[in-house]
Please model this.
Amino acid sequence: MSAKRQEQGNRNDSGFSRALLKREPWLHIAKRPEMGKKRGGLLKMASILLAIAVGGLFMLALGYNPLTLYMTIINGALGNAESWRMTIRLMIPLVISSLAVCLAFKMRFWNIGAEGQIIMGAVFATYFALYHTSWPRLPLLLVMFVAGAVGGALWGLLPAFFKARFNTNETLFTLMLNYIALNVIVYFRDGPWKDPGSSGFPKIARFDKVAQLPKLAGVQIGWLIALILVVLVYVYLKYSKHGYEIKVVGASQATARYAGMNVRRIILRTMAISGALAGIAGMVQASGSDMTLAESVAGGVGFTAIIVAWLANLNPFGIALTAFFFSVLEKGSSVMRSSYNLSAEFAAVLQGIILFCVLGGEFFLRYRLVRRSGSKPRETQVREV
Amino acid sequence: MSNHEDRPAKAEAAASGAATPGERRDGYRSGPAIAGQGLTKRFGSVLANDHIDFEVEYGEILALLGENGSGKTTLMNLLSGLYFPDSGQIYVDGQAVSVSTPADAISLGIGMIHQHFKLVEAMTALENILLGPRTSKFSLARHRQEIERMCKTYGLTVDLGKPVYDMSVSEKQTVEVVKVLYHGARILILDEPTAVLTPQETESLFAILRRMKQQGCAIIIITHKLNEVLAISDRVMVLRRGRSEALLQTSQADLRSLTETMVGHAIDLKINRPTYAAERQKTLLAVQELSVIRPDGSQALDQVSFELKTGEILGVAGVAGSGQKELSEALVSLTPCQSGSITYCGQVISGLPTTEIYKKGVSLAFVPEDRLGMGLVGDMGMPGNMLLKSYRDHRGFFIDCKPAEQLSQQLKETLDISTPSLETPVRLLSGGNVQKVLLGREIESQPQVLITSYPVRGLDINASYTVYDLLNEQKMKGCGILYLGEDLDVLLELADRILVLCHGRVTGIVDARQASKETVGLMMAGMTLKEELA
Model:
């Protein structure tokens, strides 16, 4: 027998390392059996409560009264009609782009490019807003809406085509397209679409009145569009054949092929719809809120949408709720920041803590910590010193 | 978890003074290697292991026999550190130990070989073997020498430089064995190791296990194949519903007594083979000179020709990877044909996309080998899976779930599928029930041709016989069934004719009622029927 075996034999035969003779560990991670929907929901509530508590500790540590700060956040976001309007305005693009991301994610197509698709939607819509102001308002807005959807869809189709054809990595592909899209705006802003009336300062002109989305109940009509889309996406995913195909392709492409589905076509179609939704978000943001095409038209919404969609478990109604929560946090902490003269980082840290707790709670959906049972004494108990 | 490696040598030396009963050669001991006392594990409402006691000695093979869901794998996962027992104690070499992680198990000398291999495909055998153990030496050459020496001792043959993706199933399994041995395992646990092997490969695995036993290893083998228990084990423990029903010497057991202990009641082990009236037989599917090339460029099928008739089960035998998978997938257009033709009742269907084939009214059903990865959607419940083939039938944009729900309910009753609710994701069901869902759906379409790929792989005895009965029922309705099988005994008992594949070529088609196991075995190894008769 080899020396190596001999050596190993000796090591093991000479009694196991103490760690193994020790009692079971104080805590260990165990996989949880499938959790019911109700308990899962409760767990999410619990992690939100925990988030609020930990955030409170952070405020305390910096010498602020958490209750007042939290009240400021809530008041700032929902305190009066004006703040409600601001919050809803923040929420509109977030809901729509989360729906976009949700569709792709259902298919396990990791669309990280909602940001770019939003921008391209806005760019396409902006062309009509700038150069077709002679058209009557309704047709113009409708054309802008369609153009936004087409722009986003084309930007979404690009990675989908390469994925379906050459199996490229969609995560990197969609991510990189974001930066290209961003610079497309810069190109138009500094070049062909530069506002002649801005006395040299590079910006795109403010949309003409006819190219602005009307208001409904004091907020741009985008909120209604978002709500309608929530219902449409829910129905599409749950009751349509397309939705079924998306789920099967997401579960296993082999199964989809086995069932006779055209996997390529489904990937292209779904990404086109996903991109179109994001493009609509861009159009709504540019024409309803910004009234122009600014570099910040997406402003990170495409990334936040990923978190929102994921937290909502890819459920459209959950998305609406989660997006609302995020918008309250966003709006409220900006008010808190200005009224207590806090740094921007304070709000960012607070948001980070809350997100961390909520996302961390996801871990407990699948795993649990098991404490050692303590009751049964073991025969060989070697205590660590 | 590597902290115990650095513990001062003093402690180890002191501990080595502890009882060392009867040293064997190579530093192995005789006496109990691993034992469990009152091992209990509960998952939610299911008591997976209920106060199980056992022990295995060095130089002994213990078979762990039980139907699906009887708690075999749970017990092994307790021993290998994947689960932690709710109560009970594990002993290794007579000492109470706590196995809370797989790393603990490895340092205790417990090696687990899982049913689904845990190898990195892109790496070579050598690299896979060296993954994990904490060694201070980096010299590949020295490791290679040591591994080769070890392989010689145990009579294992491994091509250390071969990448895993190029390996056959049994080669991969050998790599797993070498890996755990090289990590210092003296107690080996094999979870259904023969489920993926051909009879010949199984025999060579058993030779390896016997060799390891002679070298003083303690071996636990999980299986539900009774013949294997009788062939390889010294003792056998029968589990039923999480409880240990019996722990007996294999020499005192026989097929019948083991089955009855395992199932809990007497069952008939004979497989039925009804005969369909020959005068009513006509050709359903004609395959002519079909050739298929794998994506890597190798020839999967080489000029395969055969006919499938109504009311027959045509068995396909062959060593794993002889082209069975490609054959079944080519028949349903999941794999493109390079040349040759497939004719269904006079219509050529080769080269058409799957959707077109279904549109042509070809009633072809396929039960693929990979049930959850291809035949079903694991995350969906029964209705969602029923829709897979039929969701297009209903016109319009929306899906009609009603028929699928009714069908699910009906299958649940007729096939006795045990599931908490229809909407329970099918991946949570036991293997037998998963197969019933799949087979039930395919049969429900009243196919004229049914292609089944390893339909009883991984199923327990009861479930296997249910599958045989279902297939026979279809056969008597006039369905032509292509049965890709691995258990030659079953093929000889169940099929009407057997087509033997070797390296993608048909070495012969024999009458299963007259053929002997030896003949088919030789044909599987490449001898053609003529040579065999000559």
